Structure prediction request, 76 residues.
Amino acid sequence: MNNDRLAAQLETRIFYFYVVDQKPNEIRITMYGTHYTLHKSNEGWRNASSNSMNMSQPLIDSVVEVVYGSTQPMPV
Prediction:
């Protein structure tokens, strides 16, 4: 998408990432050299089964909040 480095905060730690692609029900990011795909389902945003590593749910929530902004509704 763009080359802007974003930062998600989880408790006292900050995780930097880049958005690779963004669709209404899918976000693809790179975080510390690892690619993650997050899918939107009825339960919320979750790791894609194709991810080589799984991201924790609190970190997923923080990444989604950064990508969509806390004041904008997340697409369904």
Summary: The first strand starts at residue 6 and ends at 10. The two ends are 20 Å apart (CA to CA). The beta strands are 6-10, 13-23, 26-31, 34-41, 44-47.
